[in-house]
Amino acid sequence: MSQSPPLRRQSGILAALLAAALLSAPAPARQADAQPEGAAHQRIPVPSLAGEENHPFTIEIPSTWEVRRDLPAPGVFLGPPEGDPDSHPEMVLVHESEVPLGEPEAVLTNIRANAETRSWALLEAEVRDFGGVLGLWIVRKLPPAGAHGERVNVAVKLPLGGKSLDLMATVPMAEYEALSAQLERMLQSVRPAGAEG
Q1: Would you say residue 8 lies in a domain?
Q2: CA quadruple 192, 135, 94, 77: dihedral positive or negative?
Q3: Least confident of 42-56, 95-109, 158-172
Q4: Number of domains forming the structure of the chain
Q5: Range of the domain at 86
Q6: pLDDT at residue number 197
Q7: Which of 55, 89, 154, 164 sits CB 3.0–4.6 Å from 171 for a disulfide?
Q8: Does pLDDT of 106 surpass 70?
Q9: Cα angle vertex 38, ends 36, 43, to 5°?
Q10: Distance (Å, rounded) from C-alpha 147 to C-alpha 85?
Q11: pLDDT at 80 over 50
């Protein structure tokens, strides 16, 4: 049974309105250059700062990412082959800290106490298991600094002999919601070398 002319006309108007709405809809929040959920990833050794021997951990990152030693920082970045942390805030910085992590709970207590006297705010802080190794999961809100507005720093701290290994990303507050799931997936994927899975 064919539609009557008024019904066909209404269907056409509805289709035109729907198309206009889709074309004029604001672009979704930036989802980072990493591949979407289910896309290809690679597990790589966590690189050392010296570049000679890797740290005793691995991490899963997007397959298009690589180790970046060409950026000025107190560490090594993992990220896209082009750009920098300003254009790709989801890049992960690998950094060694002099703070030992033999007793994660004690370090966590100290971080919580420091938060009360610092300019940053502690959003999350807990001990987590990284493939049988206890480490810290820390999320801080950082105040504006220089050209940067408020930012969120997401970090994992792991034991490394008499010191600790930090893997972190610092993203603008406005982009944190869009990037938080990706960052947690990457940073939570850290495992001791040989214990991946």
Answers
A1: no
A2: positive
A3: 42-56
A4: 1
A5: 30-192
A6: 55
A7: 89
A8: yes
A9: 95
A10: 13
A11: yes
Q: How confident is the model at residue 39 (pLDDT cuts 50, 70, 90)?
A: low
Least confident of 15-29, 44-58, 63-77, 102-116: 15-29
Whether 124 is in a domain gets the answer yes
Q: Would 145 be classed as within a structural domain?
A: yes
Cβ atoms of residues 53 and 31 within 8 Å: no
- Beta-carbon count within 10 A of 22 CB: 8
Q: Is the pLDDT of residue 12 over 50?
A: no
Phi, psi angle pair for 32, to nearest 5°: 75, 165
- Please enumerate in sequence order all residues whose Cβ is within 8 A of that of 47, keeping only pairs 6 or more positions apart, or say none: 54, 55, 67, 69, 76, 78, 94
Distance CA 137, CA 117 (A): 20
* DSSP codes, 76-111: EEEE-SS--TTT-TTPEEEEEESS--SSHHHHHHHH
Backbone angles phi, psi at 67, to 5 degrees: -75, 130
Mean pLDDT of 137-157: 93
Whole-angstrom distance, CA of residue 170 vs CA of residue 48: 20
Q: Give the CATH number, domain containing residue 86.
A: 3.40.1000.10
The verdict on residue 21 lying in a domain is no
